[in-house]
Design brief:
Blueprint: H1 3-22, H2 27-34, E1 40-41, E2 45-49, E3 62-64, E4 70-72, H3 73-76, E5 80-86, H4 91-107, E6 112-118, H5 123-132, E7 139-141, H6 147-153, E8 163-167, E9 173-179, H7 185-196
Parallel strand pairs: 5-6, 6-7
Antiparallel strand pairs: 1-2, 2-9, 3-4, 5-8, 8-9
Length: 199
């Protein structure tokens, strides 16, 4: 194969992979792509805020953190909870870590909790990432069982990393950000909106 056809073939594979990566039977993702949603599509991330009367069921989850502590939805009940799916080698996860931490610091004295869900690494790697990136909230280590990711699957399949969810006080998904945060402001607004709601 000459150089030109080989480049064309590689380009075709990359385009096909991009298209497949964007395919989903997820109705929320379909809303993003059609533009029929309250959020928007940006070049590097997508956001949707879900009206209270359109939210699904409460998501119940549990797991063990990087420090060996048990953590579950029962521990965050009644609080607005931010759940961030990530792993240490993920470039966008590294880039957004300061933004997540900033929003956590801004809201930690209110009825808000932050929980990371590491989908790929073992506890030692996750703990090292937290130290190196000044992340002070806990992360559940989900690589061995996938139980937390599975718990959310009925309401919102986690098909991209990072993905950040905002849960309302009832534990229902109130907002979703697919991809890297583009600064702290969008997440901060979503958390503030969820806090203002009355359950």
């Amino acid at each position: 194969m000459t150089r030109r056809p080989r480049i064309a073939a590689v380009a075709a594979v990359l385009v096909a992979g991009t298209v497949l990566a964007g395919c989903s039977s997820d109705p929320v993702a379909d809303q993003y792509l059609s533009g029929e949603n309250k959020g928007y599509i940006a070049s590097d991330f997508r956001v949707e805020e879900i009206p209270s009367d359109q939210r699904g069921e409460r998501v119940e989850w549990e797991g063990e953190t990087e420090h060996g502590d048990e953590l579950s939805s029962a521990d965050t009940a009644g609080d607005v909870t931010v759940v961030n799916f990530w792993y240490a080698e993920c470039g966008p996860c590294i880039a957004e870590a300061p933004d997540l931490e900033q929003v956590w610091q801004d809201y930690q004295d209110e009825d808000v909790q932050f929980v990371g869900v590491n989908t790929y690494n073992q506890a030692a790697t996750a703990a090292s990432f937290a130290r190196d990136n000044d992340v002070s909230y806990p992360s559940i280590i989900d690589v061995n069982t996938g139980a937390v990711k599975l718990a959310f699957a009925a309401e919102t399949p986690i098909q991209a990393t990072p993905t950040t969810l905002v849960l309302d006080r009832e534990g229902r998904i109130a907002a979703r950000i697919i991809g890297q945060l583009n600064g702290p402001s969008v997440l901060s607004t979503l958390v503030g909106d969820a806090l203002e709601e009355r359950s």
